Amino acid sequence: MKVNIEHVEAYSPIDKERVLDLIQDSIGFDRVNDTVRANMIQWVATVVQWYFHSIAYNDQTDLGQTRHSIASIASHMAAQGHLRVCFTMDHEL
């Protein structure tokens, strides 16, 4: 997963410049990129884990929303070239 904080967008160009300067002068872009990447991976893992837990215990609460979230993640990853294998998550319980 590619993350590059230097390509971030901001409403205010001045704010963008200030934030990027702060990052560069303190912890650096690599550390911020690594932190963002790790948090995104953790978020995806949590959503997928919850989805499969729901299937295993037949908990239909918000299952449709979780399915939608996973499909959105997969679609975005495929569009970015990060997802090489696609599979269907339809199931019968």
Helix-strand layout with pairing:
Layout: H1 13-25, H2 29-56, H3 63-79
Helix pairs in contact: 2-3
Q: Which descriptors apply to this entry?
A:
single chain; mainly alpha
DSSP strand count: 0
How far is it from the N-terminal to the C-terminal residue, by CA?
33 Å
Q: Report helical residue fraction.
A: 55-70%
- Report the C-alpha radius of gyration, rounded: 18 Å
Largest sheet: none
Individual helix count: 3
Overall domain count: 1
Catalogue the unreliable spans. 83-93
Task: Identify the overall geometry.
Answer: elongated
**Helix/strand class:** mainly alpha
Strand proportion: under 5%
Which whole number gives the mean pLDDT? Answer: 75
Helix and strand pattern: HHH
Can you give a write-up of this model?
This protein has 93 residues and is mainly α. The chain has one domain (5-79). It is 62% helix and 0% strand. It contains 3 helices and no strands. α2 (29-56) crosses α3. The longest helix is centred in the middle third of the chain and has 28 residues, at 29-56. The radius of gyration is 18 Å and the shape is elongated. It starts with 12 loop residues before the first helix and ends in a 14-residue tail after the last helix. The model is unreliable at 83-93 (pLDDT under 50).
